[in-house]
Amino acid sequence: MSDFTIISDAIAAVVGSRASGLKVADNAVSLMLDVSGLNANQRAEIEADVRNAATQAGAQSVRVMLTAERITPRLIAVASGKGGVGKSTLSTNLAIAMARAGRSVGLVDADIYGPSQPRLMGVEGVKPEAEGKMMIPVMGAGGVPFLSMGQLVNPGQAIAWRGPMAGNALSQLVDAKWDNVRDIVVDMPPGTGDIQLSMIQKHKPIGAVIISTPQDLALIDAMRAISFFDTAKVPIIGLVENMAGYLCPNCGEMSDPFGSGGAEAAAKELGIPFLGRIPLDIKIRVESDAGTPPAMGEGPISDAYGAIAQMVATWLDSPKDNAV
Ligand SMILES: Nc1ncnc2c1ncn2[C@@H]1O[C@H](COP(=O)(O)OP(=O)(O)OP(=O)(O)O)[C@@H](O)[C@H]1O
């Protein structure tokens, strides 16, 4: 067998058809490696695998050029019928849990009423750089690239916006230099008005995750959000119940200050998936506010976000009519 065939077979054995343009001259190897859809860690790993395989097959130097097709990220809207139910906290932790599971995911804070994500992502005050007219996402907690309305405007300035302005501002965040990010979790403004409608009409999300607390009144608002996305023909990925049970740090007893199970029952009634339940736990607020959201750590809370991320990932990977 020629050196070329030995090296080519060794590379194909580790990366299949991702390698192309292989050249071998005097044991110096060069090739192109398609890294579309892989995150930064996976890119580094696959490149190292190729280098090892080529070296073990006899190459003395290996030059690898990474290439990736430009992909348009899919948007996952995280929405709630009303404010204060934990939508931003879920968005951050969902994105981090998805990234931990090896997915190439970004986060956009589209909540013009109170962009809180820069703090949760540990990048408060960090201004994104631009390449031409394109913003470059900043690297946030858990290695998740991130952009926020709070980086576009001063606090309070966006409150007076009408729908089209909000839609245009979202364009700046979504049409940024996301490189190989496949999915972007979008923290939507709470509610179901003109602003939210403009945003989803302009940037149709592939699906929506709705979050609610267990009280009846909150669930009525969540139902409104669900029918809002239904009307806009955005599929519902599922419903999350937040603040669903309180574990007393002193006596260890579990209580349900806002009730529990209401969201699961509502999801069943509506025929939409129930994605999981996050307890009321002060650690969630403290760690999120400190820019180290609990999904980055270990334990039951991190596991709960991980399980929701897994369900969202399964939904994204399942065949669907509106797949991009
Ligand atoms: N499961 C939880 N346990 C304890 N605190 C929580 C939990 N979920 C959210 N919080 C806290 O509740 C407050 C509101 O949460 P968050 O900002 O995520 O809500 P929101 O729905 O995005 O609100 P807004 O409508 O203002 O955007 C925050 O202080 C957050 O840390």
Please outline what is shown here:
The chain has 324 residues and is of the alpha/beta class. It is built from ten helices and 14 strands.
Characteristic terms for this protein:
9-stranded mixed beta sheet; 324 residues; alpha/beta; 3-stranded mixed beta sheet; Alpha-Beta Plaits; 37% helix; 10 helices
Q: What would CATH call the class of the largest domain?
A: Alpha Beta
Helix content: 25-40%
Rg = 22 Å
Helical/strand content category:
alpha/beta
Distance between the termini: 43 Å
Overall pLDDT score = 89
CATH topology (fold) name of the largest domain: Rossmann fold
Bound heterogens, unique: adenosine-5'-triphosphate
Query: Main sheet?
Result: 9 strands, mixed
InterPro entries: Mrp/NBP35_ATP-bd, NUBPL-like, P-loop_NTPase, YlxH/NBP35
Organism: Sphingorhabdus wooponensis
Function: Binds and transfers iron-sulfur (Fe-S) clusters to target apoproteins. Can hydrolyze ATP.
Binding site for ATP: 81-88
